[in-house]
Design a protein that fits this description.
Largest sheet: 5 strands, parallel
Shape: elongated
Oligomer: single chain
CATH topology of the largest domain: Rossmann fold
CATH architecture of the largest domain: 3-Layer(aba) Sandwich
CATH class of the largest domain: Alpha Beta
Strand content: 5-15%
Strand order of the largest sheet: 2-1-3-6-7
Radius of gyration: 19 Å
CATH superfamily of the largest domain: Response regulator
Number of strands: 7
Length: 225
């Protein structure tokens, strides 16, 4: 009797770098046990949510830093739309707060981009099979954070902002109004307001003074244009 061929695992890649997406595609192209097929790619939160709803992949590889939000935002929205999908955060940031955010957003794995190709393949297979991927040291730290009621405050909070959000916040911290920030960055006033809404949500603050204070306290240098 002929053995039944393994079912193809379908994947979506979410990263704002096309080079990264091409590299991952090349790594997975030769897999046969099981075969892995990239059925969708995205470079923003909005496109990730839309493409996931359209293609319903088995596994999503998701970066944290995206132009219009974070991978945590995308993870929550993807799992709301497609709860059967498995999500792996694939990032350059090794940070307890980020791991905590990934776990609380519902991610099933957290991997560094430095992982070797065989490790990535094995992680995808494990997550697709229903297992979660976190190294034991990170798991212990995150569990302690969960028991303690949340992530700790640290300078990493600001680093989660996109480049443009940081430019906006830096000018707000200088005391500029939304209109003045818009004039400086060639943005509409409403666009600046929308950026600040995202900043407040990410930093878990409600007022611009709080966000500006966090910027100053963490001594973040103004980003280059």
């Amino acid at each position: 009797m002929t053995a039944t061929a393994p079912r193809t695992l379908t994947l979506m890649l979410v990263d704002d770098s096309e080079l990264v997406r091409r590299g991952i595609t090349a790594v997975l192209a030769g897999e046969t046990n099981p075969p892995m097929e990239i059925v969708a790619e995205a470079g923003t939160v909005a496109d990730a949510v839309a493409e996931c709803a359209r293609t319903r992949p088995d596994v999503v590889l998701l970066d944290i830093r995206l132009p219009d939000g974070t991978g945590f935002d995308a993870c929550r929205r993807i799992l709301e739309e497609a709860p059967g999908t498995r999500v792996i955060m694939l990032t350059s940031y090794s940070n307890d707060n980020f791991v905590y955010e990934a776990v609380t957003a519902g991610a099933h794995g957290y991997l560094m981009k430095e992982i070797n190709p065989s490790g990535l393949v094995r992680a995808i297979q494990d997550v697709a099979a229903g297992r979660s991927i976190l190294d034991s040291e990170a798991t212990g730290r995150v569990l302690r954070m969960l028991r303690g009621g949340g992530a700790t405050e640290s300078a990493s909070d600001i680093s989660i902002l996109s480049h443009q959000e940081r430019r906006v916040l830096a000018l707000v911290a200088e005391g500029l109004t939304n209109k003045e920030v818009g004039d400086r960055l060639a943005l509409a006033e409403n666009t600046v307001k929308n950026y600040l809404v995202n900043v407040f949500e990410k930093l878990k603050v409600k007022r611009r003074a709080q966000a500006a204070a966090m910027w100053v306290q963490q001594s973040a240098p103004p980003p280059k244009p």
